[in-house]
Write a structure and sequence with these properties.
It is built from three helices and four strands; from the N terminus they run βαββααβ. The protein has 101 residues and is an alpha+beta fold. A four-stranded antiparallel sheet has the order 2-3-1-4. α1 runs antiparallel to α3. The radius of gyration is 14 Å and the shape is globular.
Length: 101
Protein backbone atom coordinates (compact mmCIF):
# COMPACT_ATOMS: atom_id res chain seq x y z
CA UNK A 1 0.00 0.00 0.00
CA UNK A 2 1.01 3.61 -0.57
CA UNK A 3 -0.41 6.61 1.18
CA UNK A 4 -0.70 10.39 0.93
CA UNK A 5 -0.79 12.03 4.36
CA UNK A 6 -1.88 15.63 4.87
CA UNK A 7 -1.46 17.40 8.20
CA UNK A 8 -3.47 20.59 8.69
CA UNK A 9 -2.59 23.21 11.28
CA UNK A 10 -5.27 25.03 13.25
CA UNK A 11 -7.88 26.73 11.05
CA UNK A 12 -8.80 30.38 11.58
CA UNK A 13 -12.48 29.35 11.81
CA UNK A 14 -12.78 25.69 12.87
CA UNK A 15 -16.53 25.49 12.26
CA UNK A 16 -16.26 26.87 8.72
CA UNK A 17 -13.26 24.64 8.01
CA UNK A 18 -15.08 21.50 9.19
CA UNK A 19 -18.17 22.34 7.15
CA UNK A 20 -16.20 23.00 3.95
CA UNK A 21 -13.90 20.02 4.49
CA UNK A 22 -16.83 17.63 5.02
CA UNK A 23 -19.22 19.02 2.41
CA UNK A 24 -16.82 20.02 -0.37
CA UNK A 25 -13.28 18.70 0.07
CA UNK A 26 -14.01 15.10 1.06
CA UNK A 27 -16.38 14.59 -1.91
CA UNK A 28 -13.70 16.00 -4.25
CA UNK A 29 -10.95 13.79 -2.81
CA UNK A 30 -13.24 10.77 -2.91
CA UNK A 31 -13.18 10.90 -6.72
CA UNK A 32 -9.41 10.30 -6.96
CA UNK A 33 -8.71 7.38 -9.26
CA UNK A 34 -7.43 4.32 -7.41
CA UNK A 35 -8.32 5.64 -3.94
CA UNK A 36 -8.94 2.64 -1.67
CA UNK A 37 -9.32 4.24 1.73
CA UNK A 38 -9.78 7.75 3.11
CA UNK A 39 -9.18 8.25 6.82
CA UNK A 40 -9.14 11.44 8.86
CA UNK A 41 -8.50 12.16 12.51
CA UNK A 42 -8.19 14.98 15.00
CA UNK A 43 -5.06 13.93 16.89
CA UNK A 44 -4.28 14.94 20.46
CA UNK A 45 -0.71 15.79 21.37
CA UNK A 46 1.09 13.60 23.87
CA UNK A 47 3.40 16.10 25.50
CA UNK A 48 3.73 18.29 22.41
CA UNK A 49 1.82 19.96 19.65
CA UNK A 50 -0.30 17.99 17.23
CA UNK A 51 -1.87 18.94 13.90
CA UNK A 52 -5.52 20.00 13.93
CA UNK A 53 -6.48 17.34 11.39
CA UNK A 54 -4.68 14.50 9.64
CA UNK A 55 -6.03 12.94 6.44
CA UNK A 56 -4.71 9.71 4.94
CA UNK A 57 -5.47 8.63 1.39
CA UNK A 58 -4.54 5.01 0.66
CA UNK A 59 -3.71 3.45 -2.71
CA UNK A 60 -2.85 -0.13 -3.72
CA UNK A 61 0.66 0.60 -4.98
CA UNK A 62 3.10 3.25 -6.19
CA UNK A 63 1.64 3.26 -9.70
CA UNK A 64 -1.87 3.92 -8.43
CA UNK A 65 -0.57 6.73 -6.23
CA UNK A 66 1.37 8.29 -9.14
CA UNK A 67 -1.70 8.11 -11.39
CA UNK A 68 -3.84 9.82 -8.74
CA UNK A 69 -1.24 12.55 -8.23
CA UNK A 70 -1.27 13.34 -11.97
CA UNK A 71 -5.04 13.22 -12.37
CA UNK A 72 -7.42 16.12 -13.04
CA UNK A 73 -9.28 15.08 -9.88
CA UNK A 74 -6.13 15.67 -7.83
CA UNK A 75 -5.62 19.06 -9.45
CA UNK A 76 -9.16 20.05 -8.45
CA UNK A 77 -8.76 18.66 -4.92
CA UNK A 78 -5.40 20.38 -4.43
CA UNK A 79 -6.80 23.69 -5.69
CA UNK A 80 -9.60 23.45 -3.15
CA UNK A 81 -7.09 22.72 -0.36
CA UNK A 82 -5.25 25.93 -1.23
CA UNK A 83 -8.35 27.90 -0.18
CA UNK A 84 -8.13 26.65 3.42
CA UNK A 85 -7.32 29.31 6.03
CA UNK A 86 -5.10 27.08 8.16
CA UNK A 87 -1.90 27.77 10.08
CA UNK A 88 -0.02 25.18 8.01
CA UNK A 89 -0.45 22.27 5.66
CA UNK A 90 2.13 19.51 5.25
CA UNK A 91 1.72 16.80 2.62
CA UNK A 92 3.86 13.71 2.16
CA UNK A 93 3.68 10.26 0.57
CA UNK A 94 5.14 6.91 1.44
CA UNK A 95 4.92 3.19 1.22
CA UNK A 96 3.06 1.61 4.12
CA UNK A 97 4.54 -1.54 5.60
CA UNK A 98 3.01 -3.58 8.36
CA UNK A 99 4.83 -5.46 11.05
CA UNK A 100 3.31 -8.76 12.10
CA UNK A 101 2.85 -8.96 15.85
Amino acid sequence: MHRITIQYGAPADPEAFERHYTEVHVPLASTLPGLRRYVRSHPRGMGGDAPYLVAELWFDDADALKAALKSPEMAETAADAQTFDVASMTTFTGEVTETEL
